[in-house]
Amino acid sequence: MGSLSKQQILDFIRDAAKPVTKREIARAFGIKGGDGRVALKQILKQIESDGLVAKQPGGAYSVPEGLPAVGVLLISDIDIDGDVFARPLGWDDALQGEPPRIEIMPGKKGHPSFEIGDRVLARLMRGADGTYEARIIKVLPVSGRAGARGQVLGLVRVGERGMVLHPSDKKAKYDFEIAQSDSQGAKDGDLALGEILDSRGVRNKKVRIIEILGRRDDPGAISLISLHEAGLRKDFPDRVLAETKGLKVPPLEKREDLRVFPLVTIDGADARDFDDAVFAERLEDGEGFHLIVAIADVASYVRPGSALDKEAQLRGNSTYFPDRVVPMLPEALSNDLCSLRPDEDRACLAVHMWIDAEGHLHRYQFVRGLMRSRARLTYEEVQGVFNLAKKGQYYDIVEPLYAAFRILEAARQKRGALDLDLPERQILIDDQGQMSGVKQRVRLDSHKLIEEFMILANVAAAKALESKKDPKRFPCVYRVHEPPSADKLDSARTFLESFSLSLPKGHTLKPAQINGLLHKAAKLPFSHLVSTVILRTQSQARYSPKNQGHFGLALESYAHFTSPIRRYADLLVHRALIAAFGLGEGGLVPDEIAALEEICERISGCERTSMEAERNAIDRFTASFLSERIGAEFPGRISGVTRFGLFVTLDESGADGLVPVRSLPRDFYIHNEEAHALVGRSSGRVYRLGADVNVRLLEANRLTGSTVFELAGHEDGADIPGMPLKSGFSGRRGSQRGQASGRSGKGGKKTRYGGVPRKGKRKLS
Q: What is the pLDDT of residue 50?
């Protein structure tokens, strides 16, 4: 040992980047022989008993606050730069103090697609300042996960078996126990976020409460559940808000003065921000129109690489709940500087467009301007002005807008854009933040007018960037909607044959061909069902720097340009146009161009997350509204058929709920996928997609948004008149191959029987 001291060994352990073993210490100090190793063992034992070092599992030594060389971490933060940070799984702040700072180091391909709450197995390296770097060994699944990625959101309940967290996820199969020491003061009825702890046995899952969100009966609790469940950011970080201070409308200078044009905004009556304005005038030859679409110049305020920009990219888009908006940009921009309020100067990026009498876009010009809206109009007001068809306030502005719209609408029909005009429901919220009812949104010509103007501007944006023929310098972010997949079309084709309707085979399907089928189906009593089946064949639209066309709109090139305050993709298009046409500062920068494909993938994912969160919120609002009507009967329609039951959509509220197969009249039911039906093997009852039904409400869970029904009547089934099952689809014994022996036969799958076996009756196999 020589002069080797306890302090030297302690300093070596403290300075090590990771826990060190006795063998590594001996090698470092050149300790050899039995006497030296015994002496080292005694020193280690002494400094361990003094609490100066801690012995880790596996025998390695570290300072007491040190972490093991390999451990399980919980992703705790992702900052605006995309850096990922974690904390040790199971770390108790109350007992252990603040957790050490751990930064997840990116691999060769960067970080995986992490979300807060993910768990990882990582190799840890400790720096001289006590912070850690971690390198991922693997991303771990969470057994029994009931919420988002290692965390669970739910309702705290206190009962005979103690405190539990009842998950808000309707797919959750069990509650989570909460120890009193892990409750953080939570009380019965609190909405809380819990961290799933390691535990053994399905019946003994545990969580530690990490945040109390509010009370179950708080106004706005429903949206709060949905946004937390989706991992959405409700509040903006201080550094982001700080960048909005001092921003103001830029002077005219090199901008085009658009204040000479009577631009107006047209939005819903409940809209809080107005980011697009329109104008139309007839050309001197009377055969075409000059149109202007002016959009808030978000790029003037949100510069690449700023905290505002990074936060906007992280959010991807605004998310709209029935009672609130989670905006992409802070209110100082979305509701003020970038809101085209009447009689106030506002910076804009605008496009002049010239169309002929056939609706062809012959010329366009993008400009950076200063505008002043003449009026904030609602859809209903605009429709009323036009319907009066006489001179009056705003008529001279509105009339040419409608005349141009008629031309654009005819051009849309001629090119064969997909015509799936399905009803949309609007949730009505009272002053207390509770759902008071629901109504179907009325779709007026004024809605279609704005839609056609925006589509034309989006087309012009894509064409303008393509005209530069330099995608490496001036790329376009396209809105891509791919044609339906062959598998989905084959499934729809088989089903449509039951209506004596057919989809063409052997070549690329065009939207116009689908429209032709929909027009034929419109004459049938079950046209709604055909529309539903066609809708389900459609792919999800997404963003991409690679142009693959927009199938639904029947357009070869399409971008999103018209709403940069709520869609990050539009902001990218604005920047690309600014750079391509030399419109000043705030254009696309090289770092953005290099990462464009990755950014498009990310914001497409953000859009899907928002859509799911919005649907879940609507389900919860509707379930809350129905919860006081348990036992009531409602008319509805079968909107989905699965082996475990029927999904029914109510006519009155649009609520969706499940009729479990076990509640159907007693039989053995076959799920016939091609016919979208459940067929009783013995009775021949048919429950088919699209059939009208009456149901009784059994359950409506405000927390999860789930509703459960049972059929009220329909002992003979729920089928569509005049739509027979194809040959071999009948469920009656002997009429389909394999039924007597329990096999499903062609096109069918076995499923459990409905009802409870009656005393003295043989249970069907």
A: 65
